[in-house]
Design a protein that fits this description.
CATH architecture of chain B: Sandwich
Largest sheet of chain A: 6 strands, antiparallel
Helix content of chain A: 10-25%
Largest interface: A-B, 50 and 64 residues
Strand content of chain A: 35-45%
Shape of chain A: elongated
Number of domains of chain B: 1
Radius of gyration of chain B: 23 Å
Order of helices and strands of chain B: HEEEEEEEEEEEE
Order of helices and strands of chain A: HEEEEEEEEEEEEEE
Structural class of chain B: mainly beta
Distance between the termini of chain A: 81 Å
Number of helices of chain B: 1
Oligomer: heterodimer
Number of strands of chain B: 12
Largest sheet of chain B: 6 strands, antiparallel
Strand content of chain B: over 45%
Chain lengths: ~170, ~160
């Protein structure tokens, strides 16, 4: 008869201490959240290139740009849903034709071609003023560095002059 | 002459109960509290902001007094895994989050680790202190875009 009562008393005593006391270890929870937004950046080592015709072209030589190859850096954080990533695209498009403002003479943008190197960069291509041409494509966030060299396909029929053309490179996701 | 059982056991139980209840009031006084239950790191350009500070500082209240001879104690932080984005099923290593803390000592700077206790403060005796912790997130172009979450457990314990 005494034993159950004694046990009850002990439990009661322990409960009295336990209910009011905090004991080690103590824990607290901190919830962390980090936001990463889709973001794209394009960096180029030069903003212009020039070509110089060789004297009296008899054929249609591809004249490389006078300058060193352009370094192109694409930086992108893109999104992914489950296992399906968004594709990062680098595109290039001419604003029109090569034009000599002094005479109004034009040369098609397709006279300009390029060769590129670097992971994800298209090895070669031809400029177009009608559509944006793919210069590179990637399937994951990251920093991608390549080089691009432009060429001018000369033609003996092009009149002498100084021709200009603006080209736009753009990066985005699809 | 022996008294009946009820007359001796119940008063003893009551005494023990009250003694147990009163013990913490006169014994050890311990406390661990955080000023916030959540912190967030906003999106930022990795070039412009390579280290993203959290949206607020964290104040940690730590109290460990009384209770007899001083004993060594420590405060640890344990991330319950890496930062997770459930929509993309991608993660960012939690070690990209570091903290600075003051006053030092007893607090110290550190880096979170997945499922591993990281020492944030330690001491040998009583402590009654309010500390400030600043968390920063290492930004990178290599992360997938999205919202990442993880919880961190603060544990105050005797060594």
């Amino acid at each position: 008869m005494k034993k159950p009562i004694a046990v009850f008393a002990l439990i009661l005593a322990l409960a009295g201490g336990g209910l009011l006391a905090q004991s080690l270890p103590l824990t607290e929870i901190l919830n962390l959240a980090a936001e990463v937004s889709s973001r794209y950046k394009l960096e180029m080592s030069a903003a212009s290139v020039t070509f110089t015709r060789t004297a009296n072209p008899q054929t249609r030589p591809d004249i490389p740009q006078n300058e060193n190859p352009i370094s192109v850096t694409v930086k992108a954080t893109t999104s992914r849903f489950l296992i399906f990533p968004q594709t990062i695209n680098l595109r290039i498009q001419a604003s029109g034709t090569l034009i000599d403002p002094a005479t109004g003479t034009t040369i098609p943008a397709s006279a300009i071609t390029w060769k590129a190197s670097g992971t994800g960069f298209a090895a070669s291509g031809t400029l177009s003023s009608g559509t944006a041409t793919l210069l590179g494509t990637w399937n994951a966030s990251g920093v991608y560095v390549g080089t691009v060299t432009f060429f001018f396909r000369d033609d003996p029929n092009y009149p002498p002059g100084t021709y200009r053309l603006t080209v736009t490179l753009s990066v985005g996701a699809s | 002459m022996l008294k009946p059982a009820k007359a001796t056991i119940f008063p003893a139980a009551m005494f023990l109960f009250l003694a147990g209840a009163a013990a913490p009031l006169f014994g050890q006084n311990i406390e661990l509290s955080l000023s916030r239950s959540a912190l967030s790191f906003p999106a930022a350009d990795p070039d412009a902001t390579p280290l993203v500070p959290a949206n607020d500082t964290l104040t940690v209240r730590l109290k460990l007094t009384g209770g007899g001879p001083p004993k060594p104690w420590q405060l640890t932080l344990r991330a319950d895994g890496n930062l997770i984005n459930i929509l993309s099923l991608t993660s960012i290593d939690i070690s990209n989050i570091t903290w600075t803390a003051s006053p030092a000592p007893p607090f110290r700077n550190g880096r979170l680790a997945a499922n591993v206790d990281q020492l944030a403060a330690e001491g040998d005796g009583n402590v009654n202190i309010t500390a400030v912790m600043n968390f920063v997130f290492q930004n990178s172009w290599s992360y997938w875009a999205g919202s990442y979450r993880q919880s961190v457990t603060f544990t105050l314990s005797r060594v």
